[in-house]
Amino acid sequence: MTLIETISSIAEYIESGNYYFSIGGENLHPALKCYIWLFMLADDSTSYNSYISQASSTICLSGGCKNSCNPSIVDSILKDGCISDEVKSNVDASGASCGSSSSNLLYGCIGSLSLNCLCEFYTCVVLNSAVVCRCPSIAQATFTTCICPTGYTFSEEKCLDNSCATFTSTYTCSTCIADNASPNSIGRCSCNDKFYGPDPPFKVDSCLTCNEECAKCVENLKCTTCISSNAFVDTIKGCKCNDGFWGIAPLNTLNSCVACYQDCATCPEELKCSTCKATNATPNINIGCTCNKYYYNITALTTSDSCKPCHSNCLTCDNSLTCLTCIESNAINTTEGGCKCKPEYTQIRNLTEDGSCILTTSAICQLGLYFDINTNQCMPCEEYCLNCTSLNVCLECKNNSTYGDQCLPCNSSCEECSGPGYYECTECSNVLLDGVCVNECALGFSQDDNKCVISNSNLPAISFDFKSSGATFIDQINYLQAVAIKKSRQRSLSDKLPFSTYSQGIYFPGDSALEISLSTARVFSGTFSISIWIKPSTTTGTILSKVAESNLLLSLSIENSYISFSLLLDSNFCNIKSQVSIQNELWSHIFITSQPTELNIIVNTILSNPYNPENIPFLDFINSTMYIGSDYLLENYYIGFIYLLNIYPYIEQLKLLAHTNTDCDGCDICLNTNVCIPICNIDEYYDFTSKKCFSCSSSCDSSCKNATHCSLCADDYCIKCSSFKTDSCTECINGYEIQNNLCYPCAGNQYYSSQTLTCQNCPDLCINCLSNTSCINCQENSSLNNNHLCECNKGFTYTASCIRNTFKASLMVNDHNEITIIFDENLQSTLESTCLETIVDGKKVKFDLVKSSKSVYVIIPKLDGTINSDATVNIKGICDIVSENNALLMDIYYQAKLFVSTEYYAAYKLKVKAKKAREMSKAGASAGVAAALGFSFFNLDPTSFFDFMNTAEMFIAAFLMNNTLNLVLSEFLLGLRIGDLLPDFYDYVLPENGGISMPEKFGRMGMPTNLFWVNAKPEIISLIISIVILIFALLASNCTWCYIKLSSFRSSFKYTFFLRFWLQTYFELLLISSFGIRYGNFSSAPQIVSFILCCLCLMLQFSGIVIFIYCLYKRSKLTEASQIELFEKKFGTFFDDFKPTGISNWLTYVFFILRRTALVLSYHFINDGSMQMSIAIGFSLSIPLYILLIRNFKNFYQLCFNLVNEIIIAGYYGTILFGFIYGNSIMSEENAYICIYFIISAWLLNLAFSVISNITGIYRNIKKIIIRITKNRRDRVYRVDTITEVQGKNAKTQTLEI
User: Fold this and answer.
1) Which residues does residue 80 pair with via DSSP β-bridges, in sequence order?
2) How many angstroms from the chain centroid is the CA of residue 259?
3) Which residue among 103, 669, 683, 1026 sits deepest, i.e. has the most Cβ atoms within 10 Å of its Cβ?
């Protein structure tokens, strides 16, 4: 049969539900090793036939083909033909060698191109003559992996968005990592409305809350859209209501912005406008808006043209013609429209301004004349007056360059003025500076429209600190140059040019000065202040002077130790002198203030009497020259030091310039920094440590900095500098380099190169180093190697710093939904389940974790039946998971699809049934125990209770055998555990940690670890409760009545109770102690204590067997009734239920002990579950056979019960064994329910036995009572008869005596 015929013969195949298929292998099973030319899924044989031809062919499609092939391959491009059957990996399809690298090839070659796939997920393509990974379209393919764009992580051969917490089936975002974010229209995450953050947000807390007024925003305060529907985005914060609306902040509801009153363009509240819609209206104080003067309205002011213009004569009106009031105060309105002059007045011009109507008597004069009532003639107005009413009252001037009622002319510099002076200008054709019209503003001012305003009220206009070298000093504000005006520029201690000192500013030797040429700059305004520190050597000299066109403008000088200041004001010199003198060779602070109304000199903070000009400001000139250290004639020189010169365009605060001795550090006057200026001579330097002056070295050509530095460079590490400023160095000492003209030591991560005289960066990862080949300390996550260089620690890779390496994991899911997680690298330590988070359908689920190897673990999730048919599992590490290479597991979710099949739902249904079975068994066990105890107390016979306990114990024993029971039966048996019904106060007394885990079955049976006190909890609690009851009984026995009633109870505790306790707990305590020893060790104190307790328990158990054997032997030897009665009072537990006729009747408890001992031994030494079952069945059949043969029970009903009960137990174990033998070791659910029915039958049998025993007991008790009552009556009749006879005899005796 051909392949095509085979395909055709296959029955129709229909797929349904979810399914998966793999090519070449399934999950982790061994894969097929072969070549695949074409993989195709065809709907029918027709499609299949289009790719497979039945005809043979000799055409070779790949090279290296056989002579012919049948069937041949149909290729959509190459047509029909054959392909190579070459299978060697070191040759190509034609058999030609792959070249020099052929020995390392795995997948052959194309020519010389190796087809080895180095991709970490083993899926490659040939692209541009290279073998690269097959990558998603958005990723960059490399030889080993795919590099996804920023914001994506490559996983499962896809670029997964890092902002996603879970994914859809198309791998777009289903849920987002960030709180307050959700998937957008393109499947990535974005912050929700009212939140902002990076797009997309990658962290949980990436999306932050917007301002409460924002519907959307891009940062905290700035909205992009508003919550309120009638609001707009404010550029600074939140939102504001649109024009025509108002609201009270915060605008955080849809209707926060409410409409204004209809007249309002904007409003602060509903009725009051702040601006109006109408352009010629103003807000009304009460409501809405009102039209301005000259305008009226006839409709509501709701449009921009609602206010209409009145007639040009009207001040107010109610229509376009009729005035209500007129602009001209001497006019009245007319019916025709507009206004007219009153009868006694004559109109001299249009009535659009007041004053247009004058008295008729004056109206006869022409313009420029006025009517003189004294001469009754028209007389001419003043020269600059256009219209007047008298010689001194001008109504209108000929131009604006006049002032006053007489139209007097302004100064020629003014366009408008308030007086004749140059300083009384109000408007200028150029700019206005302190009332003076000038062509440009002074230094420290800027032009605003046509006025000069101060640029910065915190800065001087000129500041010289005299800390530069050479003959030129630069102003620090406007960079004016002060140049020494002497031909010789050579520097020496005897030089006559001004020169800088290290800490005392500039020194003027007395034969030179500094000249500042001001060809285009105006220095002073009408208001200014001058601050200067001087230390003169003479009592006379000019400190500062300014001249323009040989005219002195100002001068600051010393005259006989007093400060004098002169200023040219309106062509007159004003002079003021200080009232306090200054001392030579001491520093003094001079402060000059000039205002149009006052001149002041303040010497060392002491104010002298001011000079008060008549509101005349100083007028400075451009194209002028200022001198420091001399008058403009260079005759009156200043000798001494000047430390600092500042000129301010305003009156500076004195407290910001100088302090007096109370604030100074040892001097009378000091800088505002509280630092005293040194008072050394020019050939001395100041030592700031000792605060003393010392002579310069003789080797210094000029002033010096200290005893070792003739250089005045401010930087101690500077050898050469262009000035004495801190940022003027041109060469540094060894170990320092120049940065921005300063000397800097090498940074901690640099070393000094003596070759380049610069600091060089240390090698990568060095914190500090000695050279480029020797590191001292290394950065975080790196350490020194043998070559004294830093390298990244294990698990880190260098990329600008040592970055932790990461590794990935992959998931594989089998059809039982057991998830195998395969790590790319072996883990450093055993993975704990607490380090993983497992999410199914968006919900966290619990799971068990099983280690397969160092890199492979199996996760068994605890799923329920509510998961979707397309459910996916997402697993993520929630703590650091580290590999043997010290790499860190990537912090992403690993995703896989679950197998949600019919089998899964069947398994889930089985779990539900098992849960119900356990609940039923727990309820049944509780009811059975209650009934058995009730009957036992009622009849004072605990036999029913003990029978119930022993039967339950034998049923539960099957759970620990090496057979896998059906889940329903397993859960039913676990519900039978009587120990779970006891009160649990145990956890508060003894610790449960420190144990070694027991097998799973033992754990489910309440024995999670090997610790004795944990596993024996029910037995210990029962013993404690019994002892507490005994204590109460002993205390109650102090009462005489109680003592008699409780005598039998007390006596039972001597022997009977403890023997019965031993019998009932024998099986479980033997099991607990033997397995506790088996799984124990001596690694900790709890283990040692548990071992000792287990040994003690075993000794007690075997001691009980010895006592039991002794009792059998002893009882068999007793013959006298009194001895037997006394013996059975102590040891009746072993004999009470049985006939007293011989030892053969007393072997029931021998079978009891042998059965339980054999079961425990089979758990230890027999691995075959069927063999264990056979042992249990053997005992279950032997016991009823013994009962039938011996009939050893006293009570017939008890005999029947034990006979039938053992047969039920045998049927229970037989059903289990039969199911395993004929079910291939798989127990069916049907067999499980049969076993449950056996257990329920045993319950009912116990209940029936209890009822019958109690009825029989009640009958016997009633019969005894009747017999006792009858006997008592007979006894009373007999006593009466006897008394009567005695009385008769006494009477006869008395008669005879008489």
Assistant:
1) 74
2) 42
3) 669
Peptide bond into 200 cis (omega under 30): yes
Provide the 8-state DSSP code for 69.
B
Burial of 1180 (0-12, 13-18, 19+ CB in 10 A): buried
Give the number of C-alpha atoms closer than 13 A to the C-alpha of residue 153, restricted to the C-beta side.
17
Torsion, Cα 157 163 167 168, to 10 degrees, reads -110
- In sequence order, which residues have a C-beta less than 8 Å from that of residue 656 and are 6 or more positions away? 672
* Distance in angstroms (rounded) separating the CA atoms of residues 730 and 474: 19
What does 734-791 look like in DSSP terms, one character per residue? TTEEEETTEEEEPPTTEEEETTTTEEEEPSTTEEEEEETTEEEEE-TTEEE-TTS-EE
Confidence of residue 492 (pLDDT cuts 50, 70, 90): very low
* Terminal-to-terminal C-alpha distance of the chain: 147
Q: Tell me how far apart the alpha carbons of residues 616 and 629 are, in angstroms, rounded to a whole number.
A: 28
Q: What is the mean pLDDT of residues 880-908?
A: 83
Its pTM stands at 0.38
Q: Let me know: does 868 contact 841? Beta carbons within 8 Å.
A: yes
Q: From CA 1028, how far away is CA 1033, in angstroms rounded?
A: 9
Beta bridge partners of 604: none
Burial class (CB in 10 A: 0-12, 13-18, 19+), 1247: middle
Burial class from Cβ neighbours inside 10 Å (0-12, 13-18, 19+) for residue 134 reads middle
- 791's CB contacts (< 8 A; 6+ apart) are 765, 782, 783, 785, 798
Outline where 1079-1168 has alpha helix (H).
1085-1117, 1121-1131, 1148-1165
Q: What is the pLDDT of residues 216-239, one digit of tens each?
A: 998 888 899 999 999 999 888 899
The first and second tokens of residue 328, run together, are 């001209």
Q: Is 20 helix (H, G, I), strand (E, B) or coil?
A: coil
Which residues on neighbouring strands pair with residue 209, listed in sequence order? 195
Residue with structure tokens 């003894």?
Answer: 990
Query: 3-state DSSP: the chain helix, strand, coil percent, rounded to 5?
Result: 25, 30, 45
Name the β-bridge partners of 340.
332
The residues near 526 (Cβ < 8 Å, ≥ 6 apart) are: 423, 433, 434, 435, 436, 594, 595, 596, 617, 618, 619
Residue indicated by tokens 């990862």: 765
- The full DSSP string for 659-721 is EETTTSSSSSEEETTSPPPP---TTEEEETTTTEEEEPPTT-SS--SSSS-----SSTTEEEE
- Residue located via tokens 């399914």: 19
What's the chain's average pLDDT? 81
Gap between the Cα atoms of 323 and 313, Å rounded: 8
The first and second tokens of residue 660, run together, are 């007096």
Contact (CB, 8 A) for 208 and 196: yes
> 1141-1186, pLDDT tens digit by residue?
777 777 888 888 888 898 889 888 998 888 888 888 888 888 888 8
CA distance linking residue 872 with residue 828, whole number of Å: 29
DSSP one-letter string for 250-286: P--STT-SEEPPTTEEE-SSSSB-SEESSTTEEE-SS
The SS3 assignment for 1057 reads helix
**Do β-strands 551-559 and 540-548 pair in parallel, antiparallel, or remain unpaired?**
antiparallel
Burial zone of 702 (CB within 10 Å; 0-12 exposed, 13-18 middle, 19+ buried): buried
3-state secondary structure 526-581: CCEEEEEEEEECCCEEEEEEEEECCEEEEEEEEECCEEEEEEEECCEEEEEEEEEE
Q: Quickly tell me which residue has 């960059």 as its tokens.
A: 140
Measured between alpha carbons, how far is 946 from 933 in angstroms, rounded to an integer?
Answer: 9
